[in-house]
Amino acid sequence: MPIEKAAPEMDRIVSADQPIEELGRGYGGDQGPAEGPLWWKEDGYLLFSDITNNRRMKWAPNEGCTLFLEPTNQANGLTRDRQGCLIACEHAARRVTRQDHDGSITVVANKYHDRPLNRPNDVVVKTDGSIYFTDPSI
Questions:
Q1: What is the predicted pLDDT for the residue at 48?
Q2: Neighbouring residues of 61: CB distance < 8 A, sequence distance ≥ 6
Q3: Average pLDDT score, the chain
């Protein structure tokens, strides 16, 4: 299956001639695929969320896929903040968290206008450090 380019800017990221490589299978269960991929550049590995199975997986060259964290509160979207810490949207806990370099977890958001979040899903961090995430209805 070839890569379909949606915009010419894509050429800066990946060549349309690059072969697609399957890194693993069996994630997501009957509920669907794994999501939330995040490349950890310094250590050369990919993290992704196996939401339905409540775990975070790691793929690294020459290692393949291994368990990185379990349980994850059915985390989905993953990104990093300006300090390089992991930001995750946790479906089951209805919150967005930050995992510091020492492993400690800080809740970034769990309410909006004094109402609990629905099901935080995708997340990005802007260059000024602002965190944006989606919160679709349950």
A1: 95
A2: 44
A3: 92
